[in-house]
Amino acid sequence: MTTADLDLMKHNAEGLFRRKRVLAFAMPAIVAAYFAYIFFAFDIPGLVQRASMDNAVTLASDSWSYKVHVTRSNSTGEIAYAVEGERKGAYPEGQRPDWVSGGDIVTVDLGRGYLVRLLPENRTEVDIPGYGTIEAQAGDRQVTTNLGDDLPDWINASDRRVAITTPEGRITLTGSKTEVFNYFPGWELFWFTFDSPYHGQPVTRILFGDRIDPDRANIAGALADWWNNPMWRHKDVAWAIGETILMAFLGTMGAAMLALPLAFLAARRFTPMVVVRGLTRRLFDFVRGVDALIWTVVLARAFGPGPLTGSLAILITDTGTFGKIFSEALENVDGRQIEGVASTGAKPLQRYRFGVIPQVVPVLLAQVLYFLESNTRSATIIGAITGGGIGLMLTQAIQTQKDWEEVAYYIVLVVVMVMLMDWFSGWLRGRLIGRKD
Amino acid sequence: MTDATLGKAHSPAAIDAIQSSYMVQVQRRRLYGGLTLMIFVLLMVSGFVVADDRNAGGFWEGLHQIGDYPAAVLSEAWAKRADLPALLLHFFPALVETINIAAVSTLFGAGAGLVLSLLSTRGLARWPRLIPLFRRFMDIMRAVPEIVIALVLIFILGGGPVPAMIAISIHTAGALGKMFSEVAENADLKPVEGLASTGATWSQRMWLGVLPQVAPNYISYALLRFEINIRASAILGFVGAGGLGYELRNSMAWGPGQFDEAAAIFILLFGTIVFFDQLSSRYRNRLSEGAHA
């Protein structure tokens, strides 16, 4: 090796190092500059101001707790008790929660010394430990109280409406009604609503005790009442989950069945005609490029909302994806096996069946099963757009902005559903292909 | 069938026995195959019937209407073709936002996925005992559909690109983390050991010993994710997270008369997806060829 060679090598090595050094500084700099641009493009400073922490608190607390509304109508003087203030969750006639007592003067005990007394003539007294008693008189469209002008920040008062937020519950007073909200942890009425005879019965009594409802066997009756629970709608939720899985299943399998013959047309080995091959490939690119979103929108116009639209959208998009993957797999098959089958005098169809299919099936099945799982997630989103399945229930529950415990319930169900599908497709893959991964 | 039976197979009777037992096996296999196929067909048909039944419009009534909406959109767009360039320009910022959401969430997701993958790979993990914990964590990140996180964040943060960005980032971190960790499992441990012998810290070992080996595969997976994330960010826009999807929903809500807007958005979306699809597949091919060479 001469000195000139060594010099050249050194020069090259230095050049390489210089390039690497520049790259090592340039890449982070570019990314940092991009993030700086995004910081302003996405208006992060404005977002911090707009973000509603109240909403976050409501969401976080409501998703694992429920409230019981005690509502006095100031026009009739009647007092109603209902879980979440919904008619479906109303206490039956003549019953009330055990933390409410009294006859003429109804006392609501919120706990830890916080008391609300609903007095006759639409008067209300609120005992707050460490603050005193707030007296209020509801009149025609207005509320008069003994509160001064200097109010703590947990009281919000005007002539028409007074809202008191305590750690144990909330009280809202207006001219027309007085409402007390008492919070409890848990998902109330998840099993049975008040109108079911099984509400409040211990599990052992339902399973082993005498008939609670004389007309029905305990377990059958309890199951039916739980299934038809009007508050949590277990039946509808189960149907919605079924619809979502159905969308994923029909879409994925339909796409695979459609894509397999088309993939032969797009593979160079099996279709010598350039025009056919090119057209099929462009078709795959087109349906993939249009994307599930546009397909969903277009198909929803033709078929209306529902699971069929969703499964067709998945089917069409995935036909393109599968077609591409399958045709690549077909390009890579081993020609010797086909030759071997052909040497036995097999016809073309038999050559495909015994020479090609056994080679590509493991690849194809692995892809199809992987997509089955990923499409379960897509079906949730497509359901939200086209109107079907658990995606729709979830969006509706979020849009009402009050049933956060239902939102939490649906989220848990969706996550469990996806994880189960993940596990199932992995298990099936292991069984069918014999490879555990 | 064992070698012992093969060795003894000289007499015709033994061959007959082998043949008949083989035929029995073949028939059983065919029976099972046929049964599986039947169950599958039954599932497909009944599934289709149920889906058709629960859909607002039926399959057969709707089939001939598929072309109606695209035809209406295209004819209106054609009638107003003079406005199309202006509309394309008008919606271009929304397109940029959609791409930005995808790009930022791919960057964040890839970064988080990188760390998670190294923490959950046997032989490389910083805390080997915590591998199952990080794996379950990634499973959950992957399992939560983007729309769930996006909708909840829209409620808290208000509409706009950030909820979609966070939602897609979380999913990307989980998905890439799994793929990255599969790649990292095959990484050669010798450079890591060599670095360890010089007293390198864990992050130095990963940065200098593992990353150079896996970088081409990682970048290739990240590019594939970017492509997927563009679609995801367009879809999330439809539920209120900004970008092109949001504009599409608005223009759809107007109905006829605004179909030219919908057409412009369709064109932009289609063009973008095809463009990045081609770009990333070309670049990925180059990366994988480089890795083989």
UniProtKB/TrEMBL annotation, chain A:
GO molecular function terms noted in the UniProt entry: ABC-type phosphonate transporter activity
Classification via Gene3D superfamilies: MetI-like (1.10.3720.10)
Membrane topology: Multi-pass membrane protein
Domain of life from the UniProt record: Bacteria
Transmembrane annotation, as ranges: 21-42, 245-265, 352-372, 379-395, 407-428
Compartments, as annotated in UniProt: Cell membrane
All copies of domain ABC transmembrane type-1, residue ranges: 241-425
Keywords associated with the record: Membrane, Transmembrane, Transmembrane helix, Transport
Matching SUPFAM superfamilies: MetI-like
Family matches, as InterPro entries: MetI-like, MetI-like_sf, PhnE/PtxC
A GO cellular component entry from the record: plasma membrane
NCBIfam families (UniProt xref): PhnE
Family membership noted in the UniProt record: Belongs to the binding-protein-dependent transport system permease family.
Entry-linked PANTHER family: PHOSPHONATES TRANSPORT SYSTEM PERMEASE PROTEIN
Name recorded for this polypeptide: Phosphonate transport system permease protein
Organism the protein comes from: Lutimaribacter pacificus
Lineage, highest ranks first: Bacteria, Pseudomonadati, Pseudomonadota, Alphaproteobacteria, Rhodobacterales
From TrEMBL, chain B:
Transmembrane segments: 31-51, 99-119, 258-276
Domain spans labelled ABC transmembrane type-1: 95-280
Recorded GO MF terms: ABC-type phosphonate transporter activity
UniProt keyword list: Cell membrane, Membrane, Transmembrane, Transmembrane helix, Transport
Superkingdom, taxonomy of origin: Bacteria
GO annotations of cellular component type: plasma membrane
The keyword Lipid metabolism belongs to this UniProt entry's keyword annotation: no
Main location: membrane
Localization of this protein: Cell membrane
Membrane topology category: Multi-pass membrane protein
InterPro entries attached to this UniProt entry: MetI-like (IPR000515), MetI-like_sf (IPR035906), PhnE/PtxC (IPR005769)
Pfam family of the protein (one): BPD_transp_1
Entry's family note: Belongs to the binding-protein-dependent transport system permease family.
Name by which UniProt lists this protein: Phosphonate transport system permease protein
Organism of this sequence: Lutimaribacter pacificus
Taxonomic path: Bacteria, Pseudomonadati, Pseudomonadota, Alphaproteobacteria, Rhodobacterales
